[in-house]
Design a protein that fits this description.
Elements (H helix, E strand, L loop, with lengths): L1 E3 L12 E3 L4 E4 L13 E3 L4 E4 L13 E3 L4 E6 L11 E2 L5 E4 L38 H5 L17 H20 L15 E3 L5 E3 L6
C-alpha cells in the first residue's frame, strides 16, 4: 500500500494491534491516531514516513511494542512511556533522530545544553563546584597570615566548640565518600586548606579526590 496513513484509523478507538509494516506509506503520523489509546502493538516499520514522533505515544499506557524502524523520521525522541524502554521500542534506521534515553545512543539535539565540558586537551573536564564560602578555609583560621588591610578587621578565632564541630563535619564527609558513594572515593590529600567554611563555620571537604 502507498499514500498517507488514513485519518479514519483514528475512529477505531478499540483497535489493539496495528501492523502496516513493509508498505510505501508516507507523510507524518497523524494526530488523529492519538485517539487509539487502547493500542498494545504498533508497527510502522519499513515505510517512507517522516516528521517527528508525536508526544501522544508517551501516554499510550497499554502499548507494549512500538516499531518505527527504517523510515525517515527526525527530531527529538520522547523519553516517557514505552519510549523509555529500549527492549520494547525500535527506532533504528532513522538517521535524523536525536535525544531519547541514553540506551538509544543518539546524538544530542541542538537545543540541548551539553552537562560535560572539556579541557585544553579535549578530554572531559572534571571538577567539583561549591557555593562561595565566605569564611575561606580552615588553614586561614588556624594559621592566619597578617595582611596590611587586616588592621581594622576582627581577629579570627575558633573556639573549642567550633573546632569540634568542624572535625565532626570533616569526619561525616569522609564517611560519606568512603562508605556511602556508589563508587568508594578516597581523599588522598586532606589538609586544613581543603576544608572550606561557610557563613556558619560548617566544614566542607574540598579539592578533587581520586577514585
Amino acid at each position: 500500500m502507498f499514500g498517507k496513513i488514513p485519518a479514519s484509523l483514528g475512529s477505531c478507538v478499540k483497535l489493539e494491534f496495528l501492523d502496516i509494516r513493509r508498505n510505501l506509506f508516507q507523510g507524518i503520523i497523524l494526530p488523529s491516531l492519538g485517539s487509539l489509546r487502547g493500542l498494545q502493538e504498533l508497527d510502522l516499520s519499513n515505510n517512507n514516513l517522516s516528521g517527528q514522533i508525536p508526544n501522544f505515544l508517551e501516554h499510550f499506557v497499554y502499548l507494549k511494542f512500538l516499531n518505527l524502524s527504517h523510515n525517515h523520521f527526525e527530531g527529538e525522541v520522547p523519553i516517557e512511556g514505552i519510549l523509555k524502554n529500549k527492549s520494547e521500542t525500535f527506532i533504528m534506521g532513522n538517521d535524523k533522530f536525536c535525544g531519547g534515553i541514553p540506551k538509544f545512543q543518539l546524538p544530542k539535539c541542538k537545543h540541548e545544553k551539553s552537562k560535560k565540558s572539556v579541557d585544553y586537551r579535549g578530554h572531559d573536564f572534571k571538577a567539583l563546584v561549591y557555593e562561595f564560602t565566605k569564611n575561606g578555609n580552615l588553614e586561614e583560621w588556624l594559621h592566619p597570615t597578617p595582611r596590611v588591610d587586616d588592621a581594622h578587621e576582627e581577629k579570627r578565632n575558633l573556639s573549642i566548640f567550633n573546632r569540634l564541630n568542624i572535625a565532626i563535619d570533616v569526619a561525616n564527609a569522609l564517611d560519606y565518600l568512603h562508605n556511602h558513594c556508589q563508587t568508594p572515593i578516597v581523599h588522598c590529600d586532606l589538609k586544613p586548606s581543603y576544608v572550606l567554611l561557610n557563613d556558619e563555620l560548617i566544614g566542607h571537604v574540598g579539592e578533587i579526590p581520586s577514585q
